[in-house]
Amino acid sequence: MNSFAHALPFLDDPYFAVGCCIPDWLSACDRKCRARERRALAFTESKDPLIAKVARGVVQHHQDDLWFHQTAAFNQMVVEFSVSLRDVFNDNHSLRPRFFGHVVIELFLDALLDEKFPGELERFYKQLESIDGTCVENAVNLFANRPTDKLEVGIERFRQARYLFDYRTDRGVAFRIGGVFKRLKLEPFDERILDWMPAARQRVIEKAPALLVGLSRVF
After folding, report:
1. Rounded average pLDDT over 141-168
2. Cβ–Cβ contacts within 10 Å for residue 103, how many?
3. Are 44 and 52 in contact (CB under 8 A)?
4. Are the C-beta atoms of 7 and 122 separated by less than 8 Å?
5. What would you report as the CA-atom Rg of the chain, rounded to the nearest whole angstrom?
6. 62 near 21, Cβ under 8 Å?
7. Which domain holds residue 87?
């Protein structure tokens, strides 16, 4: 699952919703810093309500990822996409096909939820403007495996870039995954990926109820 899918059920509670995104945001802004479920659990009953909400959001993120990555639909689709990408790009040896196949499912699902719940993605970003990034970073540093001074900046970058809106188009999705590839020192796929993506997006739309079975509270 990606940021919007994680946060969507909890948009009425901005700090909880932000906590749901923290593990993924740390992966982007400070890869050596991790917010693990076990350590966050110790702070879910903190007397400080902000700390408790952020910690509970982190725990929710890991619980959601656990069921999502274990669904048969997700694992079958990752294999399906990986095989077809290997065929298109004649790439049988690198991690690119499986990585792209995994991530593109999550980004297409965010776009689908954006379409299904109009206005909620904009509300998500507006609520991010109301949170105190310093307080969130300080809360995460209570239970992260190592301190970070990059999370507050990362949250602000996320707010400014508004890149979740890019997932509405195949070119936007390809561009954003290409950026992740570059950070990981992988060669992005060339323009042929844009011919591959429409059918893949439709497959994700068709399988969305099975993919998001754990989000029955919103889907």
Report:
1. 97
2. 18
3. yes
4. no
5. 17
6. no
7. 3-215
Q: How far apart are CA 212 and CA 189, in angstroms?
A: 27
Nearest 10 degrees: CA dihedral of 190, 185, 94, 35? -120
Residues 33-86: tens digit of each pLDDT: 999 999 999 999 999 999 999 999 999 999 999 999 999 999 999 999 999 999
DSSP letter string, 107-128: HHHHHHHHHHSTTHHHHHHHHH
Q: What is the 3-state secondary structure (H, E, C) of 91-112?
A: CCCCCHHHHHHHHHHHHHHHHH
Which position has the token pair 């999705």? 173
At 26, the amino acid letter reads L
Number of domains in the chain: 1
CA–CA gap between residue 157 and residue 155 (Å, rounded): 5
Q: Could you give the CA distance from residue 20 to residue 200 in angstroms, rounded to a whole number?
A: 27
Residue 65 Cα distances to 10, 41, 69, 177, angstroms: 16, 16, 6, 19
C-alpha 110/C-alpha 66 separation (Å) is 18
Q: How many CA atoms lie within 13 A of 130 on its CB side?
A: 13
User: 33: how many CB neighbours lie within 10 A of its CB?
Assistant: 20
- The rounded distance, in Å, linking the Cα atoms of 124 and 128 is 6
- The tokens describing 38, both together, are 């076990």
